[in-house]
Amino acid sequence: MDFTTETGARVALAIRSAAAWLVALILFFPILFMLVTSFKTELQAIAVPSIWIFAPTLDNFTHVQERSDYLLYAKNSLITSVVSTIVGLLIAAPAAYSMAFFPGKRTKQILMWMLSTKMMPAVGALVPVYVIAQSLHLLDTTFALVVVFMLSNLPLMVWMLYSHFKDIPPEILEAARMDGASLLTEFRHVILPLAMGGIASTGLLCLVLAWNEAFWSLNLTAAHAGTLAALIASYSSPEGLFWAKLSAASVLAIAPIVVFGWFSQKQLVQGLTFGAVK
Amino acid sequence: MPFLELKGVEKHFGEVKTIKGVDLAIDRGQFTVFVGPSGCGKSTLLRLIAGLETLTAGGIHLDGRDITRLPSAQRDLAMVFQSYALYPHMTVAENMSFSLRLAKADPAVIRKKVDRAAEILNLGPYLQRLPREMSGGQRQRVAIGRAIVREPKVFLFDEPLSNLDAALRGQTRVEIAKLHRELGATTIYVTHDQVEAMTLADQVVVLRDGAIEQVGSPLSLYDRPANRFVAQFIGTPQMNVVDRAELPPASVAVASAAYVGIRPEDLRLTAPGQGQIVAQVELVEALGAETLVYLHTLRGAQIVLRQNARTTLVAGDSVGVDVELGHLHWFDESGKLIAAAH
After folding, report:
1. Which segments of chain B does DSSP mark as H helices, in order?
2. Engineering a disulfide at B150: which of A171, A194, B78, B85 sits with its beta carbon 3.0 to 4.6 angstroms away?
3. B14 touching A, CB under 8 A?
4. Parent domain of B309
């Protein structure tokens, strides 16, 4: 087919759009299926083939709140992800600043080393972290989760902030220094406004990662400090899966972050594709 | 006592000695230009004065105060960067007032100083614009305005015109000269363009490989260059430096000279067979007001001749060249000037 004519171009566009919709639908389908299932009864949920037309019920959601205190888990998720992100940014920003604007001979190696810590499977550090948490009486506390989430996201934060700071021409900082700016004023009046987009996308990404974190919250918490990830896991039981209730719990678990992500998708995409076009 | 004094200033980056012991004195109100080829260390020297790099050795004194170890912010200097380095998120007025706002100056005073700078630089209508909404020339003026409002002890310019096109460069050069006359501020200006150096400077500092080759007024450098490097760096087209054997023995007045330097305007075309040098035309550049004739001599040297009159000569023509014997420069084997006939 000739794609150079106007009709050809329109057909090509239609094909591309259809393909994009197909991919989007495939990616979205499990979430849609989960959402639909959460409104079914347990019997409807296990029916094969799946039922798509039924009288929706809210029983599963009531059950989730009654059996396990949803609000407590939601509160824990909120606290651990928000606090770990803020503390992480406070530590990562100065590190990224010094590496971006005052690089030493080994800055590149240090950055690579930091990233390499992300390559280690988390389970490799499970026993030491568990023992440390136990001996400090930090098991089943949000504090322990905040520290672990923050540390595991730190390399990513430093990397992302580093690459965003790198985009700021150093002469601008020198000009600020000549204008009489101290390190703090330079950071507040020049770097912060110029790197705001980058800092926001870094924060958002780490917030989502901490929210989704399941491994550490399952292993370090029980009834008090469990996050929503732990809540979902508690619905898979040896007697079998209660699909409808599990779906309802999952919907409740992802709802806040999905809504949040919807409103901040521009920043998130910017953060995920950082350095992609340069 | 000089206003700004550099004593034995050295800067090493690892093993590389970028600045190798510079001594320099600059008087109050003087316009000093650092000039030299790329990589000669002129920008590094300026950044050392600005406090953006730390000295390896030596000291800097400004107005009787030792500023060697002071941070940039406390040196009371203002710098105009090659890339302008404006704050992209601030308007023109905010850019210019940033230093005063940091110093917590009275808002009324700030407004007065910004308005005055905007008036001097014709930026009045643009005060509320962002840098990205302005042309290169306007941004350059904002960068200068940012320096003016500070009323610093010394203005530092780091190749401020090299990002502008030729026409704007000439125009801005004139504006900077006027500005210096009006404000009378001590200024240090870095450029690789010797025309800027000649037209702007009270004092030119020629640098090569991190060391000063010569310091002097523009015309003294032109008339009495200390060595072959300065002789050929100052002036376009550059000075012809040829072996003494190119000239008839009778005209070689300085016995120990190895080379003779002749400015292109000190050569005259004559009929073939006349004049001290026999040469052949290689290329003629007719620039309108002046004509450059590129020649090679019988002995193989390349020389350039400049004259105001136009010519009908073409490549390959044989000519005679008359040398203005009263304007010659004599250099020894090492390239040092022995004598200049001025």
Report:
1. 42-50, 92-102, 107-120, 136-150, 166-183, 194-200, 218-223, 228-233
2. B78
3. no
4. 238-340
Residue contact A181–B73, C-beta within 8 A = yes
Bridge partner residues of B236 (DSSP): none
The reply to whether B77 touches chain A by the CB within 8 Å rule is: yes
Is there a single domain that holds both residue B260 and residue B190? no
Sequential pLDDT tens for chain B (342 residues): 889 999 999 999 988 999 999 999 999 999 999 999 988 999 999 999 999 999 999 999 999 899 999 998 888 899 999 888 999 989 999 999 999 999 888 999 999 999 988 988 888 889 999 998 898 888 988 999 999 898 899 999 999 888 888 888 888 888 899 889 888 889 999 999 888 999 999 999 999 999 999 999 999 999 999 999 999 999 889 999 998 888 877 677 777 888 999 999 999 998 888 888 889 999 999 998 999 999 998 888 899 999 999 888 888 888 999 888 888 899 998 888 888 776
CB contact under 8 Å between B72 and A178, yes or no, is yes
Q: Which helix (H) or strand (E) holds B260?
A: strand B259-262
Pair B191, B299 in one domain? no
Rounded CA-CA distance A274/A159 in Å is 10
Which CATH number goes with the domain that contains B328?
2.40.50.140
Assessment of whether the complete model's pTM goes beyond 0.90: no
CA distance B99 to chain A (A): 5
Q: Are residues B127 and B61 both part of a single domain? A: yes
Say if residue B219 is in the same domain as residue B311: no
* Residues 152-171, chain A, touching B (beta carbon < 8 A): 169, 171
Domain check: are B150 and B285 in the same one? no
Cα→Cα distances A19→A6, A11, A220, A260, B221, Å: 20, 12, 43, 27, 72
Closest CA to A160 of A30, A16, A267: A267
Q: What is the CATH number of the domain that holds B208?
A: 3.40.50.300
Instruction: Please indicate, yes or no, whether residues B187 and B262 belong to a single structural domain of this protein.
Output: no
Are B180 and B268 found together in one domain?
Answer: no
Q: Above 0.85 for ipTM, yes or no?
A: no
Q: Is A174 on the interface with B (CB under 8 A)?
A: yes
DSSP state of A237: E
Domains (ranges, CATH) in chain A? 6-57 (no CATH), 60-272 (1.10.3720.10)
Give the strand pairing for B240-243 and B291-297. unpaired
Q: Are B310 and B291 within 8 A, CB to CB?
A: yes
